[in-house]
Structures are given as structure tokens and as C-alpha cells.
Write a structure and sequence with these properties.
The chain folds into two domains: 52 residues; 35 residues, no CATH class. Helices cover 67% and strands 0% of the residues. The longest helix has 24 residues. It is elongated. The two termini are 25 Å apart.
Length: 89
């Protein structure tokens, strides 16, 4: 569950950025939401590095799923290099 926190923070920035549009006429509120949004970006990056979650690991997981589906449809060779236990090619 802890590993999903960086993704949750990333997704939360979209609604926060929409709120910024509504608070353009209220500078104090705009700055507060903007700073909070920036803090989620900083926290997201820090947590992702701390939890060793990299996009390469995510894409390796997705790639392995796609390759297994491809190979199960009767195709022999995909040319895909498997990832190691750490999610590296």
C-alpha cells in the first residue's frame, strides 16, 4: 500500500490544478493551493526515490505482462529482454 502513495500524490495534482483556475481572482487562496500542489510534487519525487519506485520498474512489469500475453497467443519470440528482480533490463 505504501508504494502507491507517490502515484496517489501525482494523480491528486490534476484536481488541484483545476482548483487553481477557480482561485485566480483570490490571490491568497491561489498561492495556498499552488504551494500545496508544489509540495505534493516534491513529496511525490522524494517518496518515489525512497521507495525505489522507478518508471523502469513499472514499465518492466507492464512489459512482462504484454510479452506473456503475446507469447500465449501462439507467437514464439518477442525480442523482449526480461527484467531482473530489481526491474532493470
Amino acid at each position: 500500500m505504501l508504494r502507491y502513495i507517490p502515484n496517489i500524490l501525482s494523480v491528486s495534482r490534476f484536481p488541484l490544478s483545476v482548483l487553481l483556475v477557480f482561485f485566480v481572482t483570490q490571490p491568497a487562496l491561489f498561492v495556498k493551493v499552488f504551494v500545496f500542489t508544489a509540495m505534493t510534487a516534491i513529496l511525490d519525487g522524494w517518496l518515489a526515490r525512497k521507495l525505489l519506485f522507478t518508471m523502469q520498474r513499472a514499465f518492466c512489469s507492464i512489459g512482462e505482462i504484454i510479452v506473456s500475453i503475446y507469447q500465449n497467443t501462439g507467437n514464439e519470440e518477442s525480442g523482449y529482454k526480461n527484467c531482473d528482480a530489481n526491474g532493470r533490463l
